[in-house]
Design a protein that fits this description.
This protein is 73% helix and 0% strand. It is built from four helices and no strands. The chain has helices at residues 3-11, 15-29, 36-50, 59-74.
């Protein structure tokens, strides 16, 4: 069916049916929802990427890193 034919048929529909048609078209254009199982698996893989064998830095070490970064950026 050509676009022009679809338009002609759409104008023959009732307003509520046209709204339903618009909703169906919008749904067909949206990305399919990501299932929670795919999402949780991705989260677990990302957590694995973040693991290190070193302990987390202390508050003082983080403050020193931020100071160093500010010095590099602004001076």
């Amino acid at each position: 069916m050509l676009l022009q034919e679809v338009k002609e048929q759409a104008f023959k529909l009732s307003p509520s049916d046209r709204l339903a048609l618009i909703s169906a078209i919008i749904e067909s254009l949206q990305d399919p929802p990501v299932s929670s199982t795919n999402r949780s698996g991705a989260i677990q893989r990302m957590r694995g990427l973040l693991k290190t064998d070193r302990p987390a830095p202390s508050d003082e070490e983080v403050a020193a890193m931020l100071d160093d970064r500010r010095v590099e950026k602004y001076l």
